[in-house]
Amino acid sequence: MDPLDFLEPAELLNYFHTHKTEMSCMETPHSFLSQLRDHNLIPEDRYKKIIRMKSKNNLRRAVYDILDWLETKKSKYIRVFWRCVFKDVMMNQYPTLKQLHNGLMDGSYHFDSELPSRVESEESDERGSSKLSDREQKQTKSPKKKRKVRSDGDDEQPGPATEQSPGQRKKHKKIRYSSPKKGETKDIWTWPLYKTQLPVTCGKVEGTLRRERLAQGQECIVVDNRWFTPAEFEKFAGKESSRNWKLSIRCAGIPLGKLIKEGHLKAGIYKKRRKPAKQSRFPTSRSNTDEEDSEDEESPQEAEASTGEDTGEEEEEETEERVEPAEVSPDHGKRMFKVTCGALTGTLYKDRFGSGKCGKSIRTELSWMTPVEFVNVALNQSDASWRKEILYKGEPLSVLIEAKVLMIHSLLCKCKLCKPEPQDLENQKNDDECCICKTEREDKLVVCDSCPRSFHQDCHLPHIDDSIVRDDGQWLCTFCVFKANEGCRYPDKQKTEVVMSRQISQHMLECPYLLLCLCSADEEQIFSTNPVEYLESYSSIIKAPMWLEKIADKLQRKGYQTVGEFVSDVQLIFTNSATFNRNNPEYLGMGEQLKQLFEREFKKAFNIQD
């Protein structure tokens, strides 16, 4: 008889309830989710949505939500759940499941008698239930067939035949449009799972921090089997200019400086070293006689500015300099590169790069191009060498190739860049992710017929109706419609006060265009979501929070009467940012840049006279 048969369903359910978080933290939970799917324990639409997530934090939250849904909706199948996950093949892959199995078998689990009674306020219960139902409704109504549906192979990462097999894709992007869940992500450093190590990020580069190595002042962050000190990791991630790793390196969005100050982490002393007299832009190796790079530990005053609080003094010690392994170019961690050729500028995307003729990897304002096409348009020369003519930071693109930052695919490579199908070539003409939320959700992207932009139906303003998706006619996004009508809207100069008093119903092109400009420019999605949900002290400082998603929702629901009301809410975002981030120059600068963009585009949209 199965040992699980000796346990009551209530005991199994309670054991499930108290270990949901542990299961949601399992690394690469795709096999775990597939097992649940094979036993019909999770809906097919939810499985497909979660399985394509790329951000580890968002994947953990999504797995937790699925487990929470199982507890609520499928509790009568709790015995089926444990039997399917306690298969030998699953426990061998996930040590967490093996520990849970042992806990059940040896009787070391704890039941309801040892837990406090669960109490939920009426407000929280109403909010939680409405969120779940809204999400489920949205998934049910979300159409599967979109206009110019991108091929299902978008998940695949092209690569040289000598480096990886066709069809593989390295996951880079993170989903940024959803907010961290209260009581979960913000306390990640207190979870038992992370007692010895923590997931950290610097810019778009992810790594794992070992706590004891940080406390000893050693190389403490590992990325792809390479160890870095905090300053080296900051440089590797392309954030060397900040020279303040306690601010630039974060765990679940919280700077390490704050965690150190609050006692969650201990940091050893990282000494300063001399800068070399001359250094190659893209070094790949160096001899033991080279002078050491300068790794700067910020002063207590700098650390205080980075976190808004005093992080304590740390004295520097004079110690012997150590010989370090070969240096890695900071550009290895980048996914995008700003490039130029003549007067033409663009952004080269590493995961789209195949060779000079394979893969439309360079995105200009108007289109996607291969490197050869980019040079042809810029110089009007068909025989020009793209490796020499395309520049990155003033250096030819060949320097990145020699440093193995960019890898040219083998002539025998059969990936979708080197041997594309007609649908693959069509997909390369448009962006791989939504222009607004910067993610690839399960619902397909709707592409503009005039520009390279792609959108989710509910991200575009106005929302893209299903009837438009099904229509075979041409569809233009708000950016393109605005540009097409730019010359005929306001031939005469306008006054700001007159524009602000106008009914917004007369300007349902200009206002959505302005908001989409802000959402598209907010690359890190800092200003898109409600800051109260992920900044613990925000509500104590800011009494009237405002964010881009809320303004978009009001615009869609026609919640504004005048242009002035709309502008007032947008300006409130910038005011709140300046107040809350007064001691955080990085985010203060982001808010200021977004403010300048809005003011510039506002004057252009309404032909405002200075």
From TrEMBL:
Name of this protein: SP110 nuclear antigen, tandem duplicate 1
Feature: compositional bias, Acidic residues: 290-301, 310-321
Domain PHD-type, first and last residues per copy: 431-483
Domain HSR, chain residue ranges per copy: 1-109
Domain SAND: 183-266, 320-407
PANTHER family with a match to the protein in the record: NUCLEAR BODY PROTEIN SP140, NUCLEAR BODY PROTEIN SP140-LIKE PROTEIN
Species: Fundulus heteroclitus
Keywords in alphabetical order: Bromodomain, Metal-binding, Phosphoprotein, Zinc, Zinc-finger
PROSITE patterns (alphabetical): BROMODOMAIN_2, HSR, SAND, ZF_PHD_2
Residues of the Bromo domain: 535-588
A Pfam family hit: PHD
GO CC terms in record: cytoplasm; nucleus
Region (Disordered): 115-181, 272-330
InterPro entries in the cross-refs: AIRE, Bromodomain, Bromodomain-like_sf, HSR_dom, SAND-like_dom_sf, SAND_dom, Sp110/Sp140/Sp140L-like, Znf_FYVE_PHD
GO biological processes: humoral immune response
Ranges of Basic and acidic residues composition bias in the record: 115-139
GO function term, MF aspect, one: DNA-binding transcription factor activity, RNA polymerase II-specific
